[in-house]
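Recall that a protein's primary structure is simply its ordered list of amino acids. Everything else, from secondary elements to tertiary packing, is in principle encoded there. The following example makes that idea concrete.
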Amino acid sequence: MRRFDRRILAGLAVGFVVVVAVALAGDIRQVAGLLERFSWPLAPVILCGTLFNYILRFVKWHFYVRLLGAPDFPVRESARIFVGGFPLALSPGKVAEALKAVWLQQRSGLPVARGLPIVAAERISDGLAVLLLSTVGVVTYPRYWPAFATFVGLLLAIVLLSQARRPSLAILRAIQRVPVVGRWVPALREVYEGAHQVLRPLPTLAAVGLGAVAWLGEGVAFYLILLGLGQPPGLPLFASAVFILAFATAVGGASTLPGGLGASEATIAGMLTILVGLPVSTAAAATLLIRFATLWFGVSLGLLVWSRSPDLLGLAHAERSATSQPSPQGPS
């Protein structure tokens, strides 16, 4: 955990800077006025859309855990690890999410090399799910085709490579003969075998379908935010909300920035002004609200889990180690 805490704190700092930058870009006074006039009774319903997303994504996460060798792992413990992983997304490239594989190993006995493919499969299926939701919008706005095709191509290439077992194992055997690097091959083979299992066609299709429904919940939340800012209801606005949020999520994930910070906000605000025709101040207010209702709401839930789970942070182990040390004071 100590390896990643500074990166996560840096992500929090970047998040603060991004929030201030978005507010300033939209004229902070106008943005503040829009937030004051926002229909706040919609807030619980908006957060329910985010919780709907989390619940369905947890179902997918737990399915992967059971699939890779922990069929009796308690649902409550699995949920604690899943939600506790939300703040880890604030690390660059979300590399700290590898800690979820460590937590799984500590509580279920599942080897870390088997848990890492679960984390990767979760990211890949989420990426394909938001791209699936973006399809209709991309057809309507061809300017987004290059980025869309690039994202889809990269994710599908990873899935196809995970299923090309013979050439992949042949590559690993070749690497094994390389000095120094070869000693990592047994662990890499274990990671590959897990990826081969969780990214098979049927589990992947089921995960992407479930993920698309899950991310649709946040699309609904974004639509309600736009209504709360005074936009007229209608199917075009709903379709735009789902498309913009899904595409911005894909851009943020591909950027490797902590939590997609900066990339997601710029995409959401820019698309709202270009495609929906919102004033810059309204686009900025909507961007801040949806990011607080999704990213920062999730981070807050994760930090709450951390506050009640010192074992996840290694604090319980450190405390036991400290109390087990002999007293430095000699006999008086």
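DSSP finds 14 helices and no strands in the chain. The chain has a mean pLDDT of 88.
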